[in-house]
Amino acid sequence: MSLILEGVSKIVGSNTHIHTTDLTLEKGTMNVLLGPTLSGKTSLMRLMAGLDKPTAGRVHWDGRDVTGMRVQDRKVAMVYQQFINYPSMTVYDNIASPLRLMGKSASQIKEEVHKAADLMQLTPLLQRKPLELSGGQQQRCALARALVKNAGLVLLDEPLANLDYKLREELREEIPKLFEASGAVFVYATTEPEEALLLGGNTATLWEGRITQFGPTPSVYRTPVDATTARVFSDPPMNFLNITKANNRLSFGDAQSAEAKGSLAQLADGTYMAGFRPNHLELHAHTADAMEFQTQLSVTEITGSETFVHLDHHGDRWVGLVHGVQMLTAGQALNVYLDPSHVYIFAQDGTLVSPAAYAKAA
Amino acid sequence: MNKTVNHKAWFLVLPVLILVAFSAVIPLMTVVNYSVQDTFGNNQFFWAGLEWFEELLNSDRMWGALGRQLAFSAIILAIQIPLGVFIALNMPKGGFWASFCLVVMSLPLLIPWNVVGTIWQIFGRVDIGLLGHTLDWMGVSYNYTQNPVAAWITVIVMDVWHWTSLVALLAYAGLQSIPQAYYQAAKIDQASRFSVFWYIELPKMSGVLMIAILLRFMDSFMIYTEPFVVTGGGPGSTTTFLSIDLVKMALGQFDLGQAAAYSLMYFLVILLISWVFYTVMTNLDKRDGV
Amino acid sequence: MAKITLENLAHSYLDNPKNDDDWALKEMNHVWNDGEAYALLGSSGCGKSTLLNIISGLVEPSQGRILFDDFDVTQAATTQRNIAQVFQFPVVYDTMTVRNNLAFPLMNRGADIKYINERVRKIAEMIGMKEQLQRKARGLTADAKQKISLGRGMVREDVNAILFDEPLTVIDPHMKWELRTQLKSLHNEFGHTMIYVTHDQTEALTFADKVVVMYDGRVVQMGTPQELFERPAHTFVGYFIGSPGMNVLDADIQGGQANVAGTPVDLGAHYTPQGHKIQIGVRPEFVRLSTDGGIPATVQRVEDVGRHKIVRLDVAGTEVNAIVGEDQSIATDTNAVQFDVAGINIYADDWRVTPTQGAAP
């Protein structure tokens, strides 16, 4: 079983919701659609589900062309951001409803409902009505209903967005387990890079209706093909700096320069956009190759074990995430250090020229 | 958003199409047919072209009725919309008294048109009506069968009594949908009562008020039963509105051709004014400050 | 700006609260300092919104007093409290221009026009909406509207406190960053007393000078982000702050040593805990993987979250999480965990036990 989108696009009026997209999702994989609001995650899911017909292109499921086939005739389960359950039915009946539609026997239904309820920790709540449950329990009920459907394609559209932080953390841990047990194609839309990383599997990054990259989640994170992908897959956002390399020296900003060391020594002469993640900025040089930047501190935020430093580097706004609780004064000058092996080099049009050396090693 | 294409779906719409054809399109075509012909009974028809329309456009009768009709609708809207909003603003926000008010307010809406007319017809009579008699006793000269002003006042008061509740209920629903946070914010900003109304309540109510205005306009522009029962269009023709005039022409004088032309023009006028209302209001709603 | 004092404050939504559970807010005594930023953190239903509503004057407490500086405002209406508030969903006056939205609280108080213009200009600059001052608020994005709400909350210099009720809920993650930082800068610049309600630990920790952790109608700990991280006063704080939260394991304590799953663990300090349930709490950041010695553990799964890895282990049937740096590898023969002495806390019946002697403060 696999889901193949072949040259699929979606245009409504004069708006292109999804640009021509080719995508193959294999059976038994977890696929994350990562992108900001309105980047096309939901539109893409609707095309996958068959809720919308693509303007062009074909959708193949399990080797069959299912373009234009009604969603009812496909085996698709969907869970939304809002907790959607039948309010007048008990949790048991909610979970049982897709099984009843399939015409399963009462004993079979009972068995499968209990199995799903066990997995979702809903067993003590089976006789309650959805509105008597907390948000997390309601969403578990919706997930259990999607699960018993035994659908080949399970679409989860920001299912945890409306939940409390800690609940989100718990369910986020449960969802990959669920998915492993089912063997279906899972598609999970989210706006949060951290969530994509926690879910693992494959990630497709979306930006303005286009999939910018698709591949195993950690590799998309560590070797983004372009600056857009890096920006989408980075929270806090990746920092950027325009650099010019000539005579083995890197110059940046107002007449500042540094010797090109480490992996940057091999870079061909030219003008580039350097990108680096906040957690790779340091307050102390750890290697001899480290580059030094003079910045001005605008704000610090302390998380308890780490400190976010918001920096002004000659007009560029950078964010750094450094270890420990750092007591610094807003407005002060701050020197920060960057190991060249953590620097991504992008061409001026945004395409990746060379990934950070550490990522190649990993 | 266009959904999965399925041609079978059209069959589901078919019964509705047939129903609409029978209930609207075919009768309309009959009227169009009548409006361009003349008949002297016996099912004999003669081609009259646009003669009826021409005649009507040159007659004072139709223009008079149209003028009265416009005046009536304008007065009705000018009274009912502000009054309805005012009532809604002063209704309890919740609890027993809110439900109580809602029930009491709905009562006039449940009474059939001709009954409303009859109620007011009797209520206003000088000999046996409570209102008419009281006014007469107080020395106010009030006789809606002879005095045009009294007749107009009666018809308007009657309509206000009958329909203001509708506006109030719609406005109330609009008010209820305003999140509590807005009021809290206004308190914190030390906004005056008027500011709360002008910057929060009115903008948030604009959607339902638009519907209320449209409904009340169309309804009042087609008013027939109540004034017919109370005044019969009189004294003289002072309360003869368009629909009363039309019925007089069609059934009283049996001028079917002319009446058909009349009703077509009537229909077009309603369509036109409603369209203007709708466009103006939706534009108001969409306008973005630049 | 004012100091806020909560004196024997408690609230129940019932007329005759009988037992502990009937109180939405259990009795509390706190003093919140002038000019500091506080975050009320907890899951839904913990009482944080009730407390906020009491401070804003929307709810009158069943018991106790609330003072702004030395004035009792328990009975005072919202209008009299001289506060500003930013709500979960953007509250803007749609038909007004952005400028008038910002100026509204000042205009209503009859401020001088020159002063108003000056303030509005300054605020608009801070929230980055200088270019849009003349347009109507209607039709702006949720982000922009929420910025206006923040700006309106900030426009008055003389408010006693500014209250925030989960103000970033409707904002996109990328934008959250920007707004949160702006808020922090605004606080640094103007020094208002701020109270920020949220269920999101990152927001609470990064925004506040002091975080007030609430659980089941009670304040379980009030402290700096560092205190909450290093010395959680209650196992709930350990669990709620940090992701993943603190590992909690049953333990036998004998002076300076604990017995965890049959293995002795050096605590670096002496404890004499009393209670039914004695536990040791260690944050994942302080758990070290080991191949030779320590508490026996088996690796269940490793999650690569980018800047670090979360290792989920099983220790005698209890899940224990460890955080390992991005560039560190995990030995395939990992069979035990060790605890960093600096990160160990001891709990008796869920409350932290202060060491009787030794290193840990």
Automatic annotation (TrEMBL), chain A:
Pfam families: ABC_tran. Residues 3-233 form the ABC transporter domain. Gene3D superfamilies: 2.40.50.100, Nucleic acid-binding proteins (2.40.50.140), P-loop containing nucleotide triphosphate hydrolases (3.40.50.300). PROSITE patterns: ABC_TRANSPORTER_2. Keywords: ATP-binding, Cell membrane, Membrane, Nucleotide-binding, Transport. GO terms for molecular function: ATP binding. It comes from the Bacteria. CDD domains: ABC_Carb_Solutes_like. SUPFAM superfamilies: MOP-like (SSF50331), P-loop containing nucleoside triphosphate hydrolases (SSF52540). PANTHER family: MALTODEXTRIN IMPORT ATP-BINDING PROTEIN MSMX, OSMOPROTECTIVE COMPOUNDS UPTAKE ATP-BINDING PROTEIN GGTA. Belongs to the ABC transporter superfamily. This is ABC transporter ATP-binding protein.
From TrEMBL, chain B:
The keyword Membrane applies. Keywords: Membrane, Transmembrane, Transmembrane helix, Transport. The keyword Transmembrane applies. It is a multi-pass membrane protein. Belongs to the binding-protein-dependent transport system permease family. This is Sugar ABC transporter permease. The chain crosses the membrane at residues 12-36, 70-89, 96-123, 149-175, 196-218, 259-278. InterPro entries: MetI-like (IPR000515), MetI-like_sf (IPR035906), Sugar_ABC_transporter (IPR052730). It holds the Pfam family BPD_transp_1. PROSITE patterns: ABC_TM1. It is found in: Cell membrane. Residues 66-277 form the ABC transmembrane type-1 domain.
Automatic annotation (TrEMBL), chain C:
Signal peptide: none annotated. Pfam families: ABC_tran, OB_MalK. InterPro entries: AAA+_ATPase, ABC_transporter-like_ATP-bd, ABC_transpr_FbpC, ABC_transpr_MalK/UgpC-like, Mo/tungstate-bd_C_term_dom, NA-bd_OB-fold, OB_MalK-like, P-loop_NTPase. One of its GO terms (molecular function) is ATP binding. It comes from the Bacteria. Residues 4-241 form the ABC transporter domain. Keywords: ATP-binding, Cell membrane, Membrane, Nucleotide-binding, Transport. Coiled coil: none annotated. Belongs to the ABC transporter superfamily. PANTHER family: ABC TRANSPORTER ATP-BINDING PROTEIN, MALTODEXTRIN IMPORT ATP-BINDING PROTEIN MSMX. This is ABC transporter ATP-binding protein. It comes from Parasulfitobacter algicola.
